[in-house]
Amino acid sequence: MLSADSKPTLSKRLRRLSAEGVGTGLRWWAEVLLVLAFYTIYTTTRNQFGSVSVSPQQALENAESIIDFERSLGLFQELRIQDFFIDWRWFIQFWNLFYGTFHFAVTVFALVWLYLRFPMLYPRWRTSFLCTTGLALIGFSLFPLMPPRLLTDCGQYGACLTTWPFVDTVREVGGLWSFDSGTMQQVSNQYAAMPSLHFAWALWSALALWPVLENRWARRLIAFYPVGTLFAVIVTGNHYWVDALGGLVVLAIGIVLGRFLADSWHNWNLHR
After folding, report:
1. How far apart are CA 95 and CA 247, in angstroms?
2. Per-residue pLDDT for 158 more than 70?
3. What CA–CA distance (Å, rounded) separates 96 from 82?
4. Residue 145 and residue 152: Cα distance in Å, rounded?
5. Nearest to residue 131, comparing CAs of 3, 261, 268, 254?
6. Residues 6+ away with beta carbon under 8 Å from 62
7. Contact 82, 167 (CB under 8 A)
8. What beta strand segments (E) does the chain contain?
9. Torsion angle in degrees (nearest 10) through CA of 230, 73, 79, 232
10. How far apart are CA 20 and CA 239, in angstroms?
11. Residue 74 has pLDDT above 80, yes or no
12. Residue 177 region, left (φ>0) first, then alpha (ψ -120 to 50), else beta?
């Protein structure tokens, strides 16, 4: 009889099923093309005309609505959090780097890891990821939102009701890039803040990877990742915490929808 410690872990059982052929039928090149095509369409739609196509007045009014909502709950703490850490230059630079790189690196790693090691789980999580990302476009289009980092000098965008002393940490402290250049303002939709895909992707990565990781420290790190991402988006002035709540909503819907679509596609393939 096997002791409790000698029983195979979930990840080991899943890998054994993979070796036995469960969940096969995937083609790596088809998956790469699918994800790249979807992300290209998403990016093009999101940034089709850049911020110049969105009314700064509307984005600013939406920002003030978010702030008023958070203040009514006594939870408008973004400015206080940034102000506490803003003089720690190395600390802020680290979170700028975290914000600019982990968002893509961890997500890509999760997709590749699931595809290679747990292909029976991959279709559901891949489809949930795509659905979550697609649903975010609805939020971007219906609720353009000026992020905190733009509120300190919102007059340059054509309208300014109230200014808040947030700091654009990438511009003032340093990071991989700045959104201030004319090219970036024309290409990138700077008002695509609600929902926060940084948080949605981080939580997606944690939910997808935590059950299949065996190393205790790896599990701790992936569990911390969404928390670290929430802190990063706030301390760098890129999001309000309510944006993360919006990310949680689209992720929840994306998981339900993604699993339904993946299972329906699988069942259709079985019976055709």
Report:
1. 20
2. no
3. 12
4. 14
5. 254
6. 143, 144, 145, 146, 194
7. yes
8. none
9. 0
10. 45
11. yes
12. beta
What six digits make up the tokens of 130?
């795509």
CA-based nearest residue to 31, from 114, 87, 131: 114
Q: Which residue has the tokens 């029976």?
A: 120
Task: State both tokens at 4.
Answer: 């409790």
Report the SS3 class of residue 88: coil
Mention every residue, 6+ apart, whose C-beta is less than 8 A from residue 190.
50, 51, 146, 147, 150, 179
The 8-class DSSP code of residue 215 comes to: S
Complete DSSP assignment for 162-180 = -------HHHHT--S--S-
- Grade residue 254 by pLDDT with cuts at 50, 70 and 90: very high
Residue-wise pLDDT tens digits, 184-200:
344 467 898 999 999 99
Residues 6+ apart with CB under 8 A from 71: none
- Mean per-residue pLDDT for 144-162? 72
The size of the chain, in residues, is: 272
For residue 52, pLDDT over 70 is answered with: no
Give yes or no for a contact between 170 and 163, defined as CB atoms under 8 angstroms apart.
no
pTM of the model: 0.84
